[in-house]
Amino acid sequence: MPMSTSAHRARVLRHQGAVAVLRHVHAHQPVTRADVMRVLGLSSGSAADITARLKRLQLLDEAGSRSTGERGRPSPMLVPHGEGPLVCAIDISHEQWRVAVAELGGGVVEHFSGRHVSRRPDAVLGHLREAVYNVHQRHARRLAAISVAVAGTVRGVEVVQASGLRWRDVSLEPLRLYPGMPLLVGNDATLAGMAEARRGAGARARVVLHLMVEVGVGGALVVNGTPVDGATGAGGEFGHLPFGDPARSCPCGARGCWDLEVGGRAMAHLLGEAPPRNPRTRAEQIITAAAGDQTARSAVEATARALGRGIGGLVNATDPDIITLSGLAVDIAEASPAAFESSYRAALMRFHRANPPALATTTLGPHSHLTGAVDRGFDAVLTPDGLDAWSERAGQ
């Protein structure tokens, strides 16, 4: 029988304090009970009651203490419970896959990876389902969500297009082990941007524009830690804005995509080469060759101009506090800084030029996709519904 509105409201209110505490602990490890009280405005009695309840539910534990600098006893540290929930995060790229099993706070308790033997969807998903099943066998009820980052356009749990994998309209539903288990699928660049905004170079900014270049251009506009990912989850496909040559067709089906002007495919095209099998590797080779080869240098400069011009256009459209760059975006900007900077500033509206948004390099590195996938998984777990589901599994 569906829950009544009043019952639903009562349940949300009952869980509200617990959810707030758990989310703060997840985002701010290490943290003391006094820190939580101060930030969330809880009385000492409320904080003690909520902590006791979360300990009974095997969600939090207390370990040691830390001085607060004030009178009284040091405040206990709030830490993930040793039997608490885990998120299985999966990163699927065009060449390999990675799996990280993480606890509250983002600490990784298990990590393994491998390369695709075949890129066929049934082969990749069959192998990953087996890996997730084995994780479930090892951790049983603790596995609370599966969160996937994939190098492609995503809508719900479906990969609409992943050019590097040659996938189109592939459902990742086979990774859901049983009905009701949260399965979350996101674009890798979007999840990297969310992680960068929450835990990396954009952590103190309200509006973060994150851009990542690998095979193409991906990214996310993140507001208050949440990506603006559109009605179906397919937002942030900045590489398919018409910032390029309208005479050129993109594998996505559009013409003139920015993707075709930035990265290894763009550099190879400028050098008169066929599309490279591994665009990132080819881009790195051309950037290295640019130190002594004028033709390679010209290709890198053209790509840097295209990158800077596109970023300027996105600043005009989104008005971010900061722009964070990762992947080949960093290498391209650093390889030809004058071309990048001049085209970036030239593309800005006049009022932005006096004080343009800062440009920052990622601080999370190549694991930012998985960090974002873990956070998205816990976003689903740390809700009233998630606490109810966990309570049922814990027998509370």
Please give a structural write-up.
42% of the residues lie in helices and 23% in strands. It has three domains: 5-80, Winged helix-like DNA-binding domain superfamily/Winged helix DNA-binding domain (Arc Repressor Mutant, subunit A); 86-191 and 368-394, ATPase, nucleotide binding domain (Nucleotidyltransferase, domain 5); 201-363, Nucleotidyltransferase, domain 5. It has a five-stranded mixed beta sheet, with helices on both faces. Strands 14-13-12-15-16 form a five-stranded mixed beta sheet, with helices on both faces. It has a three-stranded antiparallel beta sheet with strand order 1-3-2. It starts with a helix and ends with a helix. It is globular. With 396 residues, the protein is of the alpha/beta class.
Can you give me a brief rundown of this structure?
With 396 residues, this protein is of the alpha/beta class.
Task: Give the topology, please.
Elements: H1 5-27, E1 31-32, H2 33-40, H3 44-56, E2 60-66, E3 75-80, E4 86-92, E5 96-103, E6 108-115, H4 121-139, E7 143-150, E8 153-155, E9 158-162, E10 167-171, E11 183-187, H5 188-199, E12 207-213, E13 217-223, E14 226-227, H6 264-270, H7 279-289, H8 294-318, E15 322-327, H9 328-335, H10 337-347, H11 350-353, E16 358-361, H12 368-381, H13 384-394
Helix pairs in contact: 2-3, 5-12, 6-7, 6-8, 7-9, 8-9, 8-10, 9-10
